[in-house]
Amino acid sequence: MKKPHIIFIVADQLRYDMLGRGITPNIDSLARDGVLFDRAYCSCPLCVPSRGSIFTGTYPSRNGSMINPWLEQDGAYGLVSRSFETFYELMERSGWDCMHSGKQHLFTKGGKLEERPEGKTRWLSTAKTYLELLKADGVRAPGGDRFRSFVPELAGGRYTRVCRYSNPTTGCYEPGEKYYFDGYFTEKALEGLRTRDLGKPLFLSAMYLAPHPPLDVPEPYYSAVTKEEVCLPDNVGKWYDHQSPLQMYNLTGVVGTKYDLKQWKESWRVYMGLVRLLDDQVGKLLEELKCQGIYDDSLIVFTSDHGEMLGSHRLFQKMCMYEESVRTPVYLKFPQNYMSGRNIQTPVSQVDLMPTLCGYLGIELRHEPDGTSLLPMIEGAEGGRDIMIQFDGNGSRSNFQRCILRGGYKLIVDLFKDETYYELYNVLKDPQETCNLLFGEESREMQQIAASMLEALGIHMEDTKDPVRITDRDLKTFVETYSNLSQGTM
Fold first, then answer.
1. Contact 232, 261 (CB under 8 A)
2. Whole-prediction pTM value?
């Protein structure tokens, strides 16, 4: 097989329900020309560990990258072990002309990928080069103090520090698209495409920041969506009975519970404009591929590292296990004459991407991936297995969550300090996850389903050398205890 060009596009913090609704025509075209996995899930709803999983095909607890390594005390927990080969390294040794433009949040214990002396990838742009551009031109970066809120965070699981993280505040970024993260990243990617080695197949990694906050967005995107066009999902601004109260110890609840529906509607309006900006950037890349006559010969991957709550369950950002946070559809546009126009509803994981690409390309990673190839499913075979997701804190190990999906059921295990809280949902019947099935008339039957899923989750955690242990598994006592506690009002 002739080696195809590979274009790997990853958005940041993109809600799955933004796609296919008319505001992302360029991204949606990839689904029409390829295969859409509508129920794909990240391995972790956080930037760095999610990308570590995507680009190695392994779970965070196995490869070692479990948090964002911002805090020195816990920083080692955000780095992929050097015993795991990244997709960049695989492409380099397999003969592709490799280039990267955009956010670089794949960190390894061997040092930064872009600083490897033996590396063959051309680093067209990163967040560092973007900031250097702004400094040289005397232009401010998007965001600022009013776009961040104070949040408590445990360091080393023991000591509380105060951090500042993004909030839903909106604004218009007056320097314009030229100086916005993704406009710059796209221009550098286009420069790379136009100067590629014509004697080799191309590998372009395009890592966008949009629609990640701050919601400080340039025109025309700031005004692209009117208030009348915004229709909020029913679960925005609502805290449900038997939703985990431990979320109030996490950034999601600390920030998200401060906002009312009027404020969420404005955040949604600007966020949707930022999604349109993302789609336009993707459209520019696709147009360049078509102008060069290589679109039909390209394998194009589109996904997002995770989603965004944006007020659903009265939460903000990601860092939790609800659909809005962990469901990240995958689009695979294969070279012409393979597969197109398929919509697969079977749940899959992003750890399956590397085995799928390796299987199609006929090459192997130097380590054993945790995922499985999706090619048989693409070609019509029945599939399906338990999907596992983990969260170990943001900038430090503190708030732990584990999740297992089995068919339509999703079991969430939320852990903070010595407390464990369980949620069970049927996401096919209750896609907005409003009814925790462990409480109610069918509680006994639901406890049995949850117990079976919890056993499988425990085996997975042992197999992947997960340092976290779920010790309190008495679901009957859990239900009785929390049934007798007042829920209060939100």
1. yes
2. 0.96
